[in-house]
Amino acid sequence: MPELKRLHAGHAPAVLAFELANRTYFAASISDRGDDFFDQFTDRHNVLLAEQEAGSGAFYVLVAEDGSVLGRFNLYDFADGTAKLGYRVAEQVAGRGVATATVRELCGVATARHCLRTLRAATSHDNAASRKVLAKAGFVRVGPTTPADLGGKSGTWYQRDLQP
Description:
Elements: E1 3-6, H1 12-21, H2 23-27, H3 35-39, H4 41-54, E2 57-63, E3 69-79, E4 82-89, H5 98-112, E5 118-124, H6 128-136, E6 140-144, E7 155-161
Parallel strand pairs: 4-5
Antiparallel strand pairs: 1-2, 2-3, 3-4, 5-7, 6-7
């Protein structure tokens, strides 16, 4: 059974393997991270850990029994009880309810561990799977994104008010 775990330094090799193995799959529905992301992965991973330590974000990985990463679930831009949610799951588990179940779980974690009251997530009009995940996880549409929100793509902001 996969387990949602808070990101730590030891996750770096499995997270990089996850990103590399799914790069083409992700690029079909969201903006590609670019070669620099992979070339500077260790530095970027350390920045996330520093943000997490400072309390401005919380980063999670969905880890399979064999230690491989099946998904990333990030809470970032904490402000006044609100955070943004970003997530991606491996192609091998896509379409099986894994993202929806994990986003629901993370909503509980966001309230209990991070004292958040509201989560916001943006998804492009091209990403039907993500829109479906957000709707099933209790998010509602709240307005359009700007091109800067989604790497130049048009899309929609979704929001979920969390229960304590």
